[in-house]
Each structure stands twice: as C-alpha cells, then as structure tokens.
Amino acid sequence: MKLKIALVPGDGIGPDIVAEAMKVLGAVCDTYRHKMDLSFYLAGGVAIDTMGEPLPESTLIGCSESQAVLLGAVGGPKWDNLSGDKRPEKALLGLRGNLGLFCNLRPAILYPQLQQACPLKESIVEGGLDILVIRELTGGIYFGKRGRNESGDAAYDTMAYSVGEIERIVRKAFEAAKGRNRRLTSVDKANILETSRLWRSVVNRIAADYPDIAVSHMYVDNASMQLVRNPKQFDVIVTENMFGDILSDEASMITGSIGMLPSASLREESFGMYEPIHGSAPDIAGLDKANPIATILSVAMMLRYSFALEDEARTIEKAVSKVLDSKARTADIMSEGMQLVGTKEMGSLIAEQCKNK
Ligand code: NAD
Known about the structure:
By secondary structure, the chain is of the alpha/beta class. The chain folds into 2 domains: 1-102 and 268-357, Isopropylmalate Dehydrogenase (3-Layer(aba) Sandwich); 119-254, Isopropylmalate Dehydrogenase. The chain contains 12 helices and 14 strands. The strands form 3 sheets. The chain has a 10-stranded mixed sheet, with helices on both faces. The chain has a two-stranded antiparallel ribbon with strand order 6-7. Helix 1 packs parallel to helix 12 (343-353). The longest helix has 19 residues, at 14-32.
C-alpha cells in the first residue's frame, strides 16, 4: 500500500518530534512492505516568517490532496504579539475548519509503567487507563448564533444540532467502540437541553444497528465527576462540542503526561489530521529533550483510522509499551530508577521495536 501523507512540523519542538514519528513510520512501512509518499508543508510561525501568513494556500491544498496529515505543533513567544488572524494558532483552526474535520478523537491512556505520573490514587488507576473521548468538533454552541443586545448588557450564545450532525459523529463512536471494549457512554444534559434530548434519541436509534455495543447515557456533570471517581468504567465517550472540550481535557490530565497523548481529527471518509495534544514547548525546542511518544502514537492513530492498518497501528502501540518496559524515559516522564534518554534515542528505540511485528 502507498501512504500519501502531508507533514506539517510547525514550530518549537514540532520538527523534533515529527522527525522521530517519521523514523517510526519508516520502520513500520519497511516491516509491512508499504511505501510512503511524504510531502512537507509550512504552517504556524515558520510560515509567517517565510511566507507572511500562518496558513499559506499551498499548505491547505497540499494537505487536502493527501490521505492524511501529521501535524507537530505551532506557536511560540516570537509570534505572541501578533493579533487575531495573524497568529500561528490560526493555522490549526484554518486546517480543521477548511478540511471539514468534525470528529475529534482523544485517547486518554495511562500506561501502567507510568502510574506515578497520574494525580489520582493508585487504587483508582491500578493497571492503567485507556479511555477514548470522541468530541463533535464543528457544531453546537461554539458555532451557533451569538450576540449582544443594543445596550451591550446582555449576551447570548446558541446551541444547535441537526440530526445529520449528531448521526455522523455517533456512528464514528460506535465504529470506534467496535474495535475496542465495546462500551459506549454518550454524555449529554438531556434533563435540561433540547439538543441533548435530540442527541439521545439519535444515539438510541443508531444503537439498534450495533447490538453488540453496550450503550449508556450519562449527564455531563456526573461524567466529569465519574472521570476522577472511577475512570476505569469508561471505554469510549461520545459527546457534543463544548462538553467534549471540557471532558477531553479532564480525561487527558488524569493521565498526568502531556508528552504521551495523541489525537485525531476526522471527517466522514478516511481522511484525517493527527497531532499530539501538547503545544510547541518552545522552552525545550531543539534540545533533544521533547518526548516524541504523543506524535508517534498519533501516527498509530493515522494508520488505524486513515489507512485501516490495524496490525501496523498495534505494532507501534506495542513498541511504545515495550520501550517503557525497558525503563527508557524522556525527562518529562522520568522517575527514580529509570534511564534518561533524549528525543532521538526514544524515537530510535521505538522504531527498532517496530521491526518485530
Ligand atoms: P506546551 O504544551 O507547549 O508546553 C507546556 C509544558 O509542557 C512545557 O513545560 C513544555 O516543555 C512541556 N511539554 C509539552 N510537550 C512536551 C513534550 N512532547 N515533551 C516534553 N515536554 C513537553 O504549552 P504552552 O507552553 O502553553 O504553549 C507553548 C506554545 O504552544 C504556545 O505558543 C501555544 O500557543 C502553542 N500551543 C500549540 C498547540 C498546537 O499546536 N496544537 C497546542 C497548545 C499550545
């Protein structure tokens, strides 16, 4: 198979971590005999410096003509004084919006080897955590009508959802649950919100097509409490835009390791954009200190969701786990008795492991 991928390293540690992710993808492609068709594009601060805008048209066209996009991170102090549309972060929103990426997948994984990093009690997370939060990304209150009255002393934001918008994200969630532990929790506020009642009815209708998935509904206030009380009860969580924004941050933070968490933003067909959840970490850029694992795991998600290469995705995930077993740690996940390695060595160790299927 030939994988046509757009690479957008961006700023700060972006180029460092994307280079390691490519090392790992190269090893997996060698092992499984796939070919790579890679193109590099500029976005963020580096694009402002060289082309005068955070998201040049050539980047947008290049990304939309590929099968998947791997993004590092954008932004940094150099561009902090720029305003609004000129800021590096504009590239992210521009890519997500222009590419129609309505489905945001954020796994919150706590590897048993990194249990000390978790802020929750050991008894709650013993054996690790593996939750997938699926957030609707292009609808709801963030995109609804908003405004102020004439005197400016009252304001409103509108939450609106159509059946079509709910159905497409909910189907993605059922499909994701199928490949995992077959439990889906739909989070809403159906005791108050009409959009949530519509959401719930769509989930119940689609559930009939997936009799082997155990579906439950949970109010968002309860879900935010349950995530810290008993996170292991969750497998896949699906929810609307604003609830997902808040819950996905909560879920990722209970793992305590920002350098470890990948994400995917998808649309109807297989195209997707993949990126670590962290930023450009300018404080450690170019110092061989960044943890490349979030980006490497983003490549695993890319293989799974854009190329349907499940074995290849699992090979990367298993390789990460094996390398953690071997006690190798970048500085952000370092603890007593472990062996400190740099960005490049961590990438090489994982790539090496990927040569064993
Ligand atoms: P950040 O995530 O870049 O860094 C927060 C802290 O975590 C820093 O101490 C950093 O060194 C550390 N860190 C982050 N990723 C790491 C990794 N892979 N390995 C080891 N340590 C890591 O967040 P910030 O400092 O708030 O933002 C820095 C810049 O990144 C800002 O310009 C911000 O706008 C931008 N940003 C970009 C994205 C994105 O591109 N998706 C997301 C968030 C922030």
